[in-house]
């Protein structure tokens, strides 16, 4: 039963922000690749990730080591940059031709 809940939580944490939010934004007339929509996507993902941790296990987040927080921060920054450059290939600094 616990395994099912973990799998369901992971699916919800990925599908809702990265599939449902851009689809709803597009139906409301927004460009799903715009910075505003991508910001909402990432904030939704982080809210789905952290709100249950804060509400259900209030002592968990402060108990995580600094090294784990640093690893998480680096992973989130890499994921956000990957998402940005995937949707804006013309802005990749190392992909531009010089001169």
Textual characterization of the structure:
The protein has 99 residues and is mainly α. It is 71% helix and 0% strand. The protein has three helices and no strands. The radius of gyration is 17 Å and the shape is globular. The model has no long low-confidence stretch (mean pLDDT 87).
From the structure above, extract its key features.
single chain; 99 residues; mainly alpha; 3 helices
Quick overview:
By secondary structure, the chain is mostly helical.
Q: Tell me the major beta sheet.
A: none
DSSP helical segment count: 3
Compressed to H and E, one letter per element, the order equals: HHH
Low-confidence stretches: none
Number of strands: 0
Instruction: Determine the mean pLDDT.
Output: 87
β content, as a range?
under 5%
Query: What's the overall geometry?
Result: globular
Rg, rounded, reads: 17 Å
User: Helix coverage percent of residues?
Assistant: over 70%
The N- to C-terminal Cα distance equals 60 Å
Structural class, judged by helices and strands? mainly alpha
Ordered list of secondary-structure elements with their pairings:
Blueprint: H1 2-27, H2 35-56, H3 66-87
Helix pairs in contact: 1-2
